[in-house]
Structure prediction request, 444 residues.
Amino acid sequence: MKNLKRLLLLIVVVIIVAVVYNYPKLNMISGYAAKNMASNVFIANRTAEAINKVDNNVPLIKLAKSKADNKSKSATSSVYGLMSRKAVYRDGLGAVLVNDDYDPTKFTLQPHRDFTNTGLPFPYGNKKQKDTVFANIDYTKLLKAIGLGFSNPDVQKTRSTIVIYKDQIIAEQYDGGFTKDTKILGWSMTKSIVSTLYGILQCNGKLNVSQLAPIPEWKNDNRKNITYNHLLRMQSGLEWDENYTEISDATKMLFLESDMSLVQLNKEAIAKPTEVWNYSSGTSNLLSGLLKKNFKTHQEYLDFPYTSLIDKIGMHSMLIEADMVGNYVGSSYGWATTRDWAKFGLLYLHKGNWNGERIFDANWVDYVAKPTAHSNGTYGAHFWLNAEGRFPDVPKDMYYASGYQGQYVFIVPSKDLVVVRTGLATYPTFDLNGFLGGIVKAIK
Prediction:
């Protein structure tokens, strides 16, 4: 009996220690679950059942119990009844995690949108393209390569794939429950949208990325020499911990902060600009916040991504979510259909020219695709690169937007090719080299 009591006491002590140690994590877990539930239900129009069964059914996050309320357009989550979190949906701004101080009447702005349809075939409109057969494409090999991504659903977890060659859709496939009209979260592909907005401002003579970042708090310390370029290339030297398995700078920012643009701004420098390369979602949100300095009003800031880029090239499905104070979460929260993500890739393939209209200068493409020092040839300016042949069966001129869980927009200039893949499995679980290599080899 004494031994049993000791064993029970030991078990209780272990449980208490485990709860105390992991309790802060519960805030992140329930926060992720609530935010993911609200966004998917009210932006992507998916069911709460599907989100609980699939999207939130991943390590740690599956500990949360989540539900959506269609009447209030909100979602709540908790872990064993602890650390309840709530996310609410706002028209035009998407879902956001809120705290006890949240007042929906304090911020009522939303971006103005222009959903005018050109009436043209894809990609310059949404009308069906004429069927085109290219003599230099081995369609059997192409379909085999596409099928690779869907061949083992429990492992590959592909949701959508589209392949565009010379502006023509030559292959397109969706997993069950997903269609060409389903909006999909791009996660860090949104970083490439932020970069593009800076390219547009530079093209319009509003700024130059070589300029110092206009941050008063940095003017009198060792951060004073940080430029927009350093931020776009993730080489500012600022302290940052990008870790999604622990409580880190990144997770605290996404699931605790009401103003995400300030988190990186308040970090100290651990190196001089260009001395180190350190991937940072905080940097992307800082850049997103700094965009406001180019406009007189917050309304103009909210409108800018849509009027200058998104709606201008017909990415009408896209929505970029904002934090509690109305800053776009440029690190992570851009939603769009697979075809609209492909339009973004095509804009870069055409070097900023969209059906005769100049969106950004052609040399901006060279800028974002130029390898950043200390990134081992894998990173440019908020775009990833294949410059050092990370994917050996794919041309080295390929560059791409990349997001958590395997969201990709690949641009391959030498092949006149854009490929989009979305899903819940990333490299190397998802065989990117085999997938892309097979597509490239199908084009003679």
